[in-house]
Write a structure and sequence with these properties.
alpha+beta; two-stranded antiparallel sheet; Pilus_assmbl_Flp-typ_CpaB
């Protein structure tokens, strides 16, 4: 073996040894890999409706279920599993208003069984229920449904011909038509003979007096608010007086 080959071999050995020691030095400097586990969000089991619950409908166990809800998003009025036997206590409770599927059930929207009757459960606190016998001609052709808003027109005299009609109440909530309480009825038309309305105590007295002094008509209101009040008032004659709902 000549001198040149021995020199090349020596250089190779030295380079290999240097690379080996450099690799060992780099390994000592590499920090260990830390595996970070994802933080699990804390949840609370909240009572929600399993399906649509109509106003006036009595609840059953099949109408409710527990689901996990982010704890930070739980509202004070939610019913949680921490409440003892909360789900069983709601059996046969009455819905005050429509509860859609998946919506958390809150005490403000229900009345527990035994606390009041069906109509009393639907009424807003402090309000009264009054009933008016109607015909298609006096109830917007029968297209007034529970949950709608109406104006009440009064015409003096038994047949309503002794004086011009005037609006005595505006924006009155319809509680029921005959014995139908549902706000989301499948029918777009109910041939009702009796309409139950929600009024304040003073308005209920004025309503009863007007019912005995003349004829009353219900006028259906749109669910949409006008962009301005000009269109709603410019066709009103000067002899029409208005008693606004709740302010008589």
């Amino acid at each position: 073996m000549n001198v040149s080959r021995i020199a090349i071999l020596g250089v190779a050995l030295v380079a290999g040894a240097a690379a080996f020691f450099l690799m060992l030095g780099n390994d000592t400097e590499i920090a260990p890999v830390q595996i970070v586990e994802p933080v699990r969000e804390e949840t609370v089991r909240v009572l929600v409706s399993s399906n649509n619950i109509q106003r006036g409908q009595r609840l059953t166990l099949e109408d409710t279920r527990w689901i996990a809800w982010p704890k930070k998003a739980v509202q004070p009025n939610f019913i949680t599993e921490e409440t003892t036997d909360a789900r069983e206590e709601l059996e046969s409770a009455v819905a005050r208003s429509l509860i859609v599927a998946g919506e958390p059930i809150v005490n403000a929207k229900i009345v527990k069984a035994g606390s009041s009757g069906l109509m009393a459960a639907i009424l807003a606190p402090g309000m009264r229920a009054v009933t008016l016998r109607v015909s298609p001609e006096t109830s917007s052709g029968g297209f007034i449904l529970p949950g709608d808003r109406v104006d009440i027109l009064f015409a003096a005299g038994r047949d309503g011909r002794e004086g011009g009609a005037r609006t005595i109440f505006e924006n009155v909530r319809v509680l029921a038509v005959n014995t139908t309480y549902s706000e989301n009825t499948e029918n777009s038309h109910i041939d009702g003979s009796n309409v139950t309305l929600e009024l304040s105590p003073n308005d209920a007295e004025a309503f009863t007096s007007a019912r005995g002094a003349g004829s009353l008509n219900l006028v259906l209101r749109s669910i949409f608010k006008p962009e301005n009040d000009i269109q709603a008032t410019e066709r009103r004659s000067s002899n029409v007086s208005v008693i606004r709902y709740g302010r008589s």
